[in-house]
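BUG-355 | component: ligand-complex export | severity: low

The export step for AN7 jobs runs without errors, but we want the raw record kept on the ticket for reference. Input record follows.
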Amino acid sequence: MSYFKQWPGLIKAYEKWLPITNKTPVITLQEGGTPLLELKYLNELIGKNVKVFAKYDGLNPTGSFKDRGMTMAISKAKENGCEAVICASTGNTSAAAAAYAKKGGMKSFVLIPDGYVAQGKLAQALVYGAEVLAIKGNFDRALKIVQQLADEFPITLVNSVNPYRLEGQKTAAFEIIDSLGKAPDFVCIPMGNAGNITAYWMGFNEYFNAGISKSLPKMMGFQAEGSAPLVLGKTIDNPETIATAIRIGNPVNKEKAFNVRKESGGKFTKVSDEEIIKAYKILGKEEGIFCEPASASSIAGLLKMKDEIPTNSIIVCVLTGNGLKDPDCAIKNNDALFKAGIEPDIEIVAKSMGF
Ligand code: AN7
């Protein structure tokens, strides 16, 4: 017996907004429909009667927003008779590509920068049965290679140059408006290849043009200081940051991103690794939300621009990936009291607890 109607996944939920037909096989893990959580501690921290929300996309089936794009890209690949997919990835795209490819009965190849993918993401790609090729080079190099491979061999590229990825990802903007009843004033979002900021802007515009929302948000994009090509306006040859997900020096969607900034009247800003970790800890300790460091850059960015926020603003920060993806970062960066090697004796344990 079923008590609750299940969320059907974003393709079914938003089918009339997506480029699918009744011939498209829907490959889904019931992604999307993620929580929009009010962040009470951040409301207080910023003051001015603002309301800050987190779009918690780390709660997708493979733990990141990439599932939104992948359900579309893989469904369309299946529709077109494709048998194998390929991507370059800083980790999350590879996890999602691997999972959805398997769900759709396809093979997946993923190229990752050797040594720079968080453990959880690597584990996922392996468990979902991808063929994982770790290259001695960064993401930008890997992307060039997969683009050429997809041109030469019968294999579909599922990086965000694949237009179906952005179509799927735009549904997060729909969900935000469906939850708030209107568009927010600001959206704070981490940027790597800038596919997601582009997709959100598409989604907000589609609802706006259909009259469902009466305004458009300002899109605030954030990058890590050592990996900020979109903020600096130039390619970074050797990007570096603790937020390995956004360790990208030459974003493929850069022109689109600049256009989003211009059209929305938004701003791109860089945040340091220290600021990212500070925000990461605040989310964990004060809000009970565990996100990965790249995602915390949206909160770090909001804190950085806090003086520029008008009174009564509604702000949505996009938390793109789950904290469990990067356990090394969590274990190295927390303020918890951790006592090890305690004797299994009730008195000793009680004493260690301060009683
Ligand atoms: C957690 O997985 O590029 O600006 O290969 O994993 O749309 O690229 C990941 C990107 C933000 C940036 N937050 O999004 C990959 C990859 C997290 C991410 C981004 C990524 P885009």
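Assignee comment: Attached the raw record above. DSSP finds 15 helices and ten strands in the chain.
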